[in-house]
Design brief:
The protein has 20 helices and 5 strands. The protein is mainly alpha-helical. Strands 3-2-1-4-5 form a 5-stranded parallel β-sheet, sandwiched between helices. The chain starts with 7 loop residues before the first strand and ends with a helix.
Length: about 475
C-alpha cells in the first residue's frame, strides 16, 4: 500500500460518466481533496445476453473522453476489470482510501451487487440516475405508485418550477500516486453508422440546441415528436443512459424552456418533453419497487404467446412486408437507436400481430440499442404489450399501415432506411403489395422478390391477438 499524507477517497463511476453535476464526485471532493476516479469492467455485464456491441462501444468511447477531461484537471481514470467487490477491496488497500463514493443504480442486478458491496466495504451512495430517487416519490401511505398520472403529480410537487441548479465541473481533481490501471479498450469501436459521438460536450450541445429558449425544438415537441420523418426529438437518450448528461440537467433545461415559452403551443411542447423525463423516472421507480418485472408480466399473466421462430426472425431482420415496421428495425440495427414512435410500432407488431412474447423483443432491443436501459426498455415493452403498470389496454393494437401514413406521410423515413422502396410512389409506399405489376416494374421493386409481401394480414392478426389476450390459459 502506498502511503499518502492526507485522507483519500475512491470515486467509483458506473453510469455517471461526467464531471459536471456529479453529486458522487462532489461528495468525494468534499470528503477529501485527493480522489481516485475508478471504473470497473464487470465481465458478467459484458457477457450478458442483454449486452450490445454498439452500446459497449459507446461506453468505451465515453471512458476515453472522460479520461481526457480528467487529465486536463490533473487526474486520470483508473480502469480495472473483474468482480467489483474484489477490485474495490484491492484499490482500498493500494490507495489507502478510507471511503468509496458512488451513485446508486436501481436495476435488480445493480441492487444485488451494490447491496453486497455495502455489507463489506465503507461506501457512500450519493445522487441518482433518476431526477428524483425512488424513495422520494411515494403515496401518502408510503407505497409506490403504479399509475403514471398520480405519480407525475406527486413528482412535480417534489420537483417544483425552478428545480435544483446543476453543479459545474470541478476545476481540479488531485489524484496522487502511481496506481495501476488497465489500458482503456479501443475495441469494439463505434461504427460510422452510429450518429452519437460519446462526449459530454456533444451531450450538452444537443441539449442546448434542443432547449434553446429562442428557437429550440422543444417548443415544437408536442406536435413533432411522433413524426418519424422529422428531426423532432432531442436525441439525448444515450447520454442520459450513461450519465454523460445528468437527468437533473435535462429537467432543469425543460423547466427553463417552460418558463420562457413564447406562447401556449411552445409551453405545451416543453411540458410534453418534461413529461417524457418524468416517464423515465417512473420506469426507474417501477423496476426498483418491482424487480420481478424483468422476468414477469405485471398483469395479464396468461397471454397465449405463439413465439414462432420464423416470425421473430422476419421481425428482427426487417422483413415483415410492412414498410414502417421494417424501416424501424433497419434504423435500430444500423444506427443503434430508434425513434420512440417506431419503438411502439414494432413492439405492438411483435406482441400483438405476431403474438411473440415481449421478453424476446426486450432482449433484442437491449442487444442493439446504445441507449438500452433496463428500466425504460422493460417499461416500454410492457406498456405496449399491455402487460405492465399503467399499460396501454390489451385491445390497443397499432395498425402498421395507418401508423405509417400518420407519422411518415410521404414515406421519407421509410425510403431512407429501406432503399429498395426508394422509387415506390407515395400512393403505395405504405402498402407496396398493392402495386400493380407495371408500377413494380417502373419502381424496380418486385414484391415477393425485392421486398416481401406482408407476413400476416393485420385484420386477422388483430382478431388472434384479442383472443390470445382475452382467454386465460
Amino acid at each position: 500500500m502506498e502511503s499518502f499524507d492526507r485522507p483519500t477517497a475512491i470515486w467509483w463511476l458506473r453510469r455517471d460518466l461526467r464531471l459536471q453535476d456529479n453529486q458522487a464526485l462532489l461528495a468525494a471532493l468534499e470528503y477529501s481533496s485527493q480522489v481516485f476516479p475508478v471504473f470497473i469492467l464487470d465481465q458478467r455485464l459484458i457477457d450478458s445476453r442483454y449486452s450490445g456491441e454498439k452500446r459497449l462501444a459507446f461506453l468505451f468511447a465515453a471512458l476515453h473522453s472522460l479520461n481526457s477531461e480528467l487529465q486536463e484537471r490533473g487526474s486520470r481514470l483508473i480502469l480495472r476489470q473483474g468482480n467489483p467487490l474484489a477490485e474495490l477491496q484491492k484499490l482500498l488497500d493500494e490507495t489507502g482510501a478510507s471511503r468509496i463514493f458512488a451513485e446508486p443504480d436501481y436495476s435488480p442486478f445493480a441492487m444485488q451487487r451494490d447491496g453486497e458491496i455495502s455489507r463489506h466495504l465503507t461506501i457512500s451512495w450519493v445522487g441518482s440516475p433518476a431526477i428524483l430517487p425512488p424513495e422520494f416519490v411515494l403515496k401518502p401511505n408510503g407505497e409506490p405508485y403504479t399509475v403514471f398520472t398520480p405519480f407525475s403529480r406527486a413528482w412535480k410537487m417534489q420537483f417544483p418550477s425552478g428545480g435544483t441548479k446543476p453543479k459545474p465541473p470541478p476545476e481540479r481533481i488531485s489524484t496522487p500516486g502511481n496506481i495501476y490501471s488497465l489500458s482503456l479498450p479501443l475495441e469494439p469501436s463505434l461504427p460510422k453508422t452510429v450518429p452519437f459521438p460519446a462526449t459530454t460536450q456533444e451531450a450538452l450541445r444537443r441539449m442546448e440546441r434542443f432547449t434553446n429558449t429562442n428557437n429550440g425544438g422543444i417548443f415544437q415537441y408536442a406536435a413533432g415528436r411522433n413524426r418519424q420523418d422529422l428531426d423532432g426529438t432531442s436525441k439525448i437518450s444515450p447520454y442520459l443512459r450513461f450519465g454523460l448528461l445528468s437527468a437533473r440537467q435535462a429537467a432543469e433545461a425543460a423547466q427553463q424552456a417552460i418558463l420562457f415559452a413564447a406562447d401556449q403551443e411552445a409551453r405545451q411542447g416543453a411540458e410534453t418533453w418534461l413529461n417524457e423525463l418524468i416517464w423515465r423516472d417512473f420506469y426507474i421507480h417501477i423496476l426498483y419497487h418491482h424487480p420481478r418485472l424483468r422476468r414477469e408480466n405485471f398483469r395479464l399473466p396468461h397471454v397465449r404467446w405463439q413465439n414462432r421462430p420464423d416470425h421473430f426472425q422476419a421481425w428482427s431482420s426487417g422483413q415483415t412486408g410492412y414498410p414502417i415496421v421494417d424501416a424501424s428495425m433497419h434504423q435500430l440495427v444500423e444506427s443503434g437507436w430508434m425513434h420512440n414512435r417506431s419503438r411502439m410500432i414494432v413492439a405492438s407488431f411483435l406482441t400483438k400481430d405476431l403474438l411473440v412474447d415481449w421478453r424476446l423483443g426486450e432482449q433484442f432491443f437491449m442487444q442493439h440499442l446504445i441507449d438500452g436501459d433496463p428500466a425504460a426498455n422493460n417499461g416500454g415493452w410492457q406498456w405496449t404489450a399491455g402487460t405492465g403498470t399503467d399499460a396501454a389496454p390489451y385491445f390497443r393494437i397499432f395498425n402498421p399501415v395507418t401508423q405509417g401514413i400518420r407519422h411518415d406521410p410521404q414515406g421519407k423515413y421509410i425510403r431512407h432506411w429501406l432503399p429498395v422502396l426508394e422509387s415506390v410512389p407515395d400512393e403505395y409506399i405504405h402498402e407496396p403489395w398493392k402495386m400493380p405489376r407495371e408500377i413494380q416494374v417502373k419502381s424496380n421493386c418486385f414484391v415477393g422478390q425485392d421486398y416481401p409481401p406482408p407476413l400476416v394480414d393485420h385484420a386477422e392478426a388483430r382478431q388472434r391477438a384479442l383472443i390470445a389476450y382475452g382467454q386465460p390459459v
